[in-house]
């Protein structure tokens, strides 16, 4: 082995070890009330990795507490993040718990030279009789050494209902997709949110349990940037 090839091998190995350490710290637990984290390479920017993690702060009872949120962008080969964001009490655990964090690197091109990334959070209560589950999407942009949230906690999926543990009950399911519009406000592209809602009622018919499902017409909502953030109308912001 030549000196040059040996040095290259050491650099590559060092990069792998550092990446391994970062990703090893981003394994979300499946236990309510514990810290949650996620890591993902940012495909739009080779050499950059996005990390999101929470720190749980217990409240006065088991059902209450908060999660502080830290989001960062890391550069390959650098020991410290190149951009960060911190939010105290980002998620309030009032009857629900934070199940999961995932990173969304879809093509959120908000301006010609500006691309955002998303952090998705899943909250649920774990109840069989009265289940609640909600998926939230927040978008962040990098401004120098700072990450700035431009969309906060848009509900992109929601499920809930109640039943008698046998058959009778009602439940609903709402899903949303986000598209980039051709129009813009304050230099940021408008966002088109498509909402699809489905409701199901279950009743006992003789010896059978019958489901009646209603699917509503999709609803389109335009989110506009006000110079600081995308404004969410009532009903679209998360818990």
UniProtKB/TrEMBL annotation:
The keyword Signal applies. This is Lipoprotein. It comes from Pseudomonas shahriarae. Keywords: Signal. Residues 1-24 form the signal peptide.
């Amino acid at each position: 082995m030549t000196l040059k090839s040996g040095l290259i091998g050491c650099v590559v190995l060092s990069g792998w070890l550092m990446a391994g350490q970062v990703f090893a710290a981003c394994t979300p637990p499946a236990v309510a009330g514990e810290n949650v984290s996620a890591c993902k390479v940012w495909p739009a920017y080779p050499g950059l990795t996005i990390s999101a993690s929470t720190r749980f702060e217990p409240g006065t009872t088991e059902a209450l507490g908060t999660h502080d949120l830290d989001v960062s962008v890391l550069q390959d080969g650098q020991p410290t993040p190149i951009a960060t964001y911190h939010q105290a009490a980002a998620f309030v655990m009032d009857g629900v718990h934070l199940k999961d964090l995932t990173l969304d690197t879809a093509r959120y091109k908000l301006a010609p030279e500006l691309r955002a990334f998303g952090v998705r959070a899943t909250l649920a209560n774990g109840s069989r009789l009265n289940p609640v589950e909600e998926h939230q999407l927040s978008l962040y942009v990098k401004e120098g050494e700072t990450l700035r949230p431009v969309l906060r906690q848009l509900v992109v999926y929601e499920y809930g209902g109640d039943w008698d543990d046998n058959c009778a009950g009602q439940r609903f399911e709402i899903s949303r997709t986000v598209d980039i519009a051709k129009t813009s406000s304050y230099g940021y592209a408008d966002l088109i949110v498509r909402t699809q809602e489905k409701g199901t009622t279950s009743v006992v018919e003789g010896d059978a349990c019958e489901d009646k499902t209603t699917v509503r017409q999709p609803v389109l909502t335009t989110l506009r940037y006000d110079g600081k953030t995308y404004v969410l109308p009532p009903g679209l912001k998360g818990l």
